[in-house]
Amino acid sequence: LEEQGARKSVVSPRSSRSPAACTNKTLQTMFYGWTIVAVAGLTCFFSGPGQNFSLGVFMDAYVEELGMSYSEITFLYGLATIIAGLALTSMGTFVDQHGQKTAALMMGIIFSSVCFANTLVDGRISMLLSFIFTRFCAQDAFVLIAKTIVNEWFLVLRGRAHAVMGLGFVASQAIVPLFNAYVISHAGWRTCWEYWGLLLGFVFTPLSQAFMVDKPAEMGVLPDGGTNTAGSKSTTSTKVYTLKQAMLTREFYFLWFCLFEGALVNTGLLLNMSSILQAAGLQRSYAPVILSIKAVFGLPASFLAGFLVDAFAPRHVLAATFLMQGLTLMIMCYCTSTLWMVFAGALFGSSATMGNICVSILLPLLFGTDYQGSIQGTSMIATILGSALGPLLFALFYDFTSSFVLVSIVCFPLTLLAALLSPHLQSPARRDSNIRLM
After folding, report:
1. pTM of the predicted model, to two decimals?
2. pLDDT on residue 10
């Protein structure tokens, strides 16, 4: 089945009148899908308070006021990330059944409430609960909503749409840590959480409900603004898979490993950046500079990835990003020059951003969009596990060896394996068809 047929979308008469009344250029200009991309980008931006780059800013304040060590907080953070990730499949099923708009309303209210509740953290149990709900709302639910709604509205132009949506996440990486640091230094970390509660409750939630529409058929239009005609390049899977069917394919587990490995190394580098610089004989205070460079280079990389995946197979672009990640890992773990670290930061931002876009596009290409919420939710558990184990793995190796050389020896082969598996991420239905033809 073609993806449009699989969705069983009914296009209203308005869609048949639009091509006759408007030129293609005008139709694309008016296409509401780009508004959806903007709302999805806003969703990515507001996932920031619960992402690694935001919570890391709270670490020093937590240690100073609550009397816990960095290793204790890191352990609680990792445990909470794993627990939160276990609910992803349920969240994906909810999105499949009720739509992204309803999910955004529910999660906007919950995340706002969680931010206010975070001001009550006063010990290990309350911090664990804080991390669990914050990570679930931000990294799990908000990101899932943003990715799935863009996949509904775009087929042929899906790469560029995800690239533009990714700007929201890039902006979040650049703005949220600075906002947190400023508020914490001037008013305290509890006030910072109060501000995020207000912003989520009175900015994100109303805007998402005002502009979010689950499917293009609800507005009587086709995906891509009507550009996905019979002669267009097909970018969709020839078969729609349920979660159970997807889990019977090898591609599902290849993708699982790629997601796990990518998160393991990226998060390990990200949350141990200060220690990596110290091990290289550089000042720990350079860490925010390297992370800012990462965010800055993520911007052009987002656009580049969007055009590359539209021009070439996303699986091949994904393989290239893993090679870039491996090079980043080796530079950061072996080099002692500030200039090399700056280069590694740029490479880090480029590979991470391009990899995220490739994965977002690959899932609907492999398994269709009818059950993408549950499939994407389940596959994101791999990302959650990698994000939880990566920082702990890097920190343990550093604690025992005062170096990151040994952890690079362990992780670099995993990066190469992910690069080798990525080209095999093609549609299971297409692969089976090719085998029969042979």
Report:
1. 0.75
2. 35
